[in-house]
Design goal:
Layout lengths: L7 H7 L4 H12 L2 H9 L4 E2 L7 E10 L2 E8 L9 E6 L3 H11 L2 H5 L3 E4 L3 H10 L4 E4 L1 H29 L15 H7 L13 H13 L1 H18 L4 H17 L4 H11 L1 H5 L1 H4 L4 H16 L6 H12 L1
Parallel strand pairs: 2-5, 5-6
Antiparallel strand pairs: 1-4, 2-3, 3-4
């Protein structure tokens, strides 16, 4: 029960036991859930100081019905026991900061050297205020996604313009098809994920389609090349100072495109420059937190949703804390 993330009824069926009866028996008698709730979760949140280490991750995930919880996890737990340090309902920075500061002594907070998180202002504020001695690091994949979304906006704008033109033209004239047998509207619709991939991962069909796209819409080719350049910057093993110089050069190239979709991207990058550049200290990402979130979601789906929220947190604690 406390070593595998399967539903109680599923485990009971494996041993030919009545699932509902065993679930009630485990919850109310065997597990010690009532005592745990009074000592650990009666305040509305869970915290375990023993799982605070030098390298932490901060992220939020939805449990059920839009109810979002903030999870503080320890990278050294590697997704197993010792991973979950805190589970707090909501994402309000003021409330979470107050809870964590009151739950930890300064010596425990000083122990943390690095906290990774996404570009959420709330998560960054929590990390900076609570772990005042740590470097706050923005996850590189969230940073890259901000730019990739701007590239995709260009693709969507072009497709919308083509749809408007098709609606106004003579329907008796068939649309132009290209050497791969697709119309430009189809090429734009089917190239979304291809534009997020590296060229060496393209299939022959994808390469043919993208070559047609780039030939007729050079703005997408330029934007894609800059996306790959950003990826190369993050892949390079360089110091934060050198990374800052390369990022500034990259900003100039992006601004030279003259597309409004990228202005907000550059503004976001400049506003978060210190936390983005902190990645180059240890090349730390928020992958461990994303992995933990996926485990929570899989566990939730196996239990067919979260009917008893507190008992669901109890099982997570037994598995991952």
């Amino acid at each position: 029960m406390e070593t595998t993330s399967l539903s109680i009824k599923h485990i009971a069926q494996m041993y030919c036991v009545n699932g509902k009866h065993f679930a009630d028996l485990y919850r109310n008698r065997i597990s010690g859930y009532a005592e745990w709730w009074e000592s650990e979760l009666c305040c509305g949140f869970y915290f375990n100081a023993a799982n605070i280490g030098p390298y932490m991750s901060l992220d939020e995930t939805c449990l059920s019905n839009g109810e979002v919880w903030t999870f503080l996890t320890n990278k050294d737990g590697h997704g197993g026991r010792g991973t979950l340090a805190a589970a707090i309902p909501g994402t309000k920075s003021d409330e979470i900061i107050s809870i964590l500061i009151n739950a930890m002594d300064k010596s425990v907070r000083r122990r943390v050297k690095e906290v990774t998180c996404d570009l959420s202002p709330s998560m960054m504020l929590i990390a900076a205020e609570v772990f005042y001695n740590a470097h706050v690091v923005n996850d590189r994949f969230h940073v890259q996604r901000v730019y990739n979304e701007a590239v995709d906006e260009i693709r969507i704008d072009i497709r919308r313009r083509l749809i408007a033109e098709e609606n106004s033209r003579d329907k008796s004239v068939p649309p132009v098809t290209y050497s791969n047998g697709e119309t430009m509207r189809q090429i734009l619709a089917r190239s979304k994920h291809t534009l997020m991939m590296s060229q060496n991962k393209w299939t022959d069909i994808q390469r043919h389609r993208v070559n047609i796209l780039f030939k007729h819409h050079p703005i997408l080719k330029s934007a894609y090349n800059l996306a790959m350049e950003l990826r190369h910057i993050f892949n390079a093993k360089i110091s934060p100072t050198k990374a800052m110089g390369r990022m500034n050069e990259w900003y100039e190239k992006v601004m030279a495109l003259g597309n409004n979709n990228f202005r907000s991207v550059i503004k976001t990058f400049r506003n978060h420059a210190p936390t983005i550049l902190n990645y180059f200290r240890r090349r730390a990402t928020n992958a461990s937190a994303e992995s933990f979130n996926s485990k929570v979601k899989i566990f939730r789906s196996q239990m067919r949703g979260v009917r008893d929220r507190d008992f669901f947190i109890f099982r997570l604690v037994k598995l991952y804390a």
